Amino acid sequence: MDSTRSELLQSTPEAEDGNIEYKLKLVNPSQYRFEHLVTQMKWRLQEGRGEAVYQIGVEDNGLLVGLAEEEMRASLKTLHRMAEKVGADITVLREREVDYDSDVPRKITEVLVRKVPDNQQFLDLRVAVLGNVDSGKSTLLGVLTQGELDNGRGRARLNLFRHLHEIQSGRTSSISFEILGFNSKGEVVNYSDSRTAEEICESSSKMITFIDLAGHHKYLHTTIFGLTSYCPDCALLLVSANTGIAGTTREHLGLALALKVPFFIVVSKVDLCAKTTVERTVRQLERVLKQPGCHKVPMLVTSEDDAVTAAQQFAQSPNVTPIFTLSSVSGESLDLLKVFLNILPPLTNSKEQEELMQQLTEFQVDEIYTVPEVGTVVGGTLSSGICREGDQLVVGPTDDGCFLELRVCSIQRNRSACRVLRAGQAATLALGDFDRALLRKGMVMVSPEMNPTICSVFEAEIVLLFHATTFRRGFQVTVHVGNVRQTAVVEKIHAKDKLRTGEKAVVRFRFLKHPEYLKVGAKLLFREGVTKGIGHVTDVQAITAGEAQATMGF
């Protein structure tokens, strides 16, 4: 483990892109140099979508030189001036002494620079919460978002449940969203001090939206829907220290790997067991992560220094998997997780988001509500383009393959009003008196110019992960593609009669109920009982609304 960490701590040469900047020293720069440094800071902030990390005392090639105290003080003063010029805040993350050939002690200082982009309210990061039933997912989120520790009997999670049967059983069956904010100085902003959701949004420069998913096997379809449709930036896999890898833990781990969602692990309930039991659970996790199927580099976080390193390495390399051990009752090591979440940068770069924003509007419908005095409201994610209040869009496909016109009356993000929605952001849109009965999960709202295509038949290249016997023509599975979830029948397996576990093939599927809007290249996941497979859509057979009615027998 230590050898892994020492490898990670060795600075690599500075990258041109990304949000990390090495600076040897910033002592009394000339006006021209200062302007150049400010421009450079703007670029790094843009790359990190509002966040940048400056490492002072490090050469561009990654050599850890360090600075004497006087030079370091002058450099931090210059950095402060630069941040003020661009309207950003700075927080010192950590200081480290370096062994360098000199009598004077020399240090390296790591500084977080944060500025909310002009066109946004706050920086946004979506984290899906996975783990076996009773591992403490809702309790941990309750403690993080409410700001008070649990009493050991689940008091912290009561505010998170959405249904009476969840409160009675203590088990999550639906998807709920919880928010945790950090202000520009890196301090936690949550529901403590009787704040409302609107106040949290106003006081925060960074928001973590936790997507609380169900742990019970019975609700696995809900968990898969949460991972495929809500497009989380990363996942938090919770493992109970006293039970280790049990129940759906392996399945959730497999889902995160299959959907290529980077994840970190939290070992909870350490207050319930002896130190040796916690160590055994961590060793078990490390063994699983190093297996050929995972290829992950586990990194146990035991100090604030580790948490800072883990956040940076996690963002740079999807193979690094930080492991935290904490308790929601005693609060042990809870601060390390908060430090990690505060520093964790957005995992998609600004260039990707810019490209998505240039495309036509496409909003995935994941939830549908009726709100008194507001009317029909839909929740979901904007996968491309920009959506504004008053936009005219079309929604579909309906059961007979049509798209219907509608108008976006208002937009809310994290329970506070918002004028403009950008690609990759999740929100709820009010549609006024639009008939709720015409909507369903899995629909898309797109700009009319897109001329969206629909299909009942599509082909996908798949890998059969597990099947008890052989997978052949006529087999029915539940297919998950983004926010689409529907039963489909296998019409043809190209170049083969049947498939066995571990085999690859191109398969033609046909939806049984109604046509759907699919895109080539979209990730696909299917299941039926113990049968599971993953893949991506390779071809869609586009049809018109008239053809859809004839095909589906309307």
UniProtKB/TrEMBL annotation:
Keywords linked to the UniProt accession: GTP-binding, Nucleotide-binding
Family: Belongs to the TRAFAC class translation factor GTPase superfamily. Classic translation factor GTPase family. EF-Tu/EF-1A subfamily.
PROSITE patterns: G_TR_2
Gene3D superfamilies with a match to the protein in the record: P-loop containing nucleotide triphosphate hydrolases, Translation factors
GO MF annotations, alphabetized: GTP binding; GTPase activity; translation elongation factor activity
Name by which UniProt lists this protein: GTP-binding protein 2
Domain Tr-type G: start-end pairs: 122-350
SUPFAM superfamilies from the UniProt entry: EF-Tu/eEF-1alpha/eIF2-gamma C-terminal domain, P-loop containing nucleoside triphosphate hydrolases, Translation proteins
Taxonomic classification: Eukaryota, Metazoa, Chordata, Craniata, Vertebrata
InterPro entries, per the entry: EF-Tu_GTPase (IPR050055), GTPBP1-like (IPR035531), P-loop_NTPase (IPR027417), T_Tr_GTP-bd_dom (IPR000795), Transl_B-barrel_sf (IPR009000), Transl_elong_EF1A/Init_IF2_C (IPR009001)
Source organism (scientific name): Mus caroli (Ryukyu mouse)
